[in-house]
Amino acid sequence: MNPTRKRRLTIVVSILVAASIATVLVVLALQNNMNYLLTPSQVQSGEAVSYKTFRLGGMVKAGSIQRASDSLKVTFTVVDAGGTMPVEYTGILPDLFRDNQSVIATGHMDNAHFVATEVLAKHDETYMPKELKDAMAKAHEGKKVEEAAAAQDNMPGNPRP
């Protein structure tokens, strides 16, 4: 093989190796930053075991909020039609956080309870994030959640996808 072809082959192989390494690094970075939204029934069925962190969405069970008197630690229960999940959070909760309120908590499982690092509450009584609405509709197939979601989509001022 003459020296010119050898040099071109070396350059092409070097570019391919560099592109492969860059692709692997991008895929790994994206996997580490993805958060999946699951409902309590999905977590209890075992769908969360493969995720290090994920988002838990549902309603705060009435009467389940317990605040520690000496710290910012709060425990509450998130429910959907098919399951319940105890949640532990240390920090300042959103102003709209209360009983029977839709929430999304980001965190991880610790044995049988969810340890949240962030808690978000919906901004009014008619809004529900699309991912949570879809996940709850799937969990409640044939129940009233689908009817409520359809009614929400038909409300004035609600943009159509």
Explain this structure.
- This protein is of the alpha+beta class and 161 residues long.
- Helices cover 35% and strands 29% of the residues.
- It has helices at 3-33, 40-44, 130-139, 144-153, and strands spanning 36-38, 54-60, 66-67, 73-80, 83-90, 102-110, 113-121.
- Strands 2-4-5-7-6 form a five-stranded mixed barrel.
- Strand 1, helix 2 and strand 2 (54-60) form a beta-alpha-beta unit.
- It is elongated and about 80 Å long.
- The termini are far apart.
Helix content: 25-40%
Count of DSSP helices?
4
Q: Report low-confidence residues grouped into runs of 5 or more.
A: none
Helices and strands, in order, run as: HEHEEEEEEHH
Order the strands across the largest sheet as they lie in space: 2-4-5-7-6
Please tell me what the overall shape is. Answer: elongated
SS class: alpha+beta
- Largest sheet, strands/sense/barrel: 5 strands, mixed, barrel
Distance between the termini: 60 Å
Mean pLDDT: 82
Strands, total number? 7
Rg over alpha carbons: 23 Å
The portion of residues forming beta strands comes to 25-35%
Summed up, what is this model?
The protein has 161 residues and is α+β, with helices and mostly antiparallel strands.
Question: What is the topological layout?
Answer:
Blueprint: H1 3-33, E1 36-38, H2 40-44, E2 54-60, E3 66-67, E4 73-80, E5 83-90, E6 102-110, E7 113-121, H3 130-139, H4 144-153
Identify the notable features of this structure and list them briefly.
single chain, five-stranded mixed β-barrel, 7 strands, alpha+beta, 4 helices, elongated, 161 residues
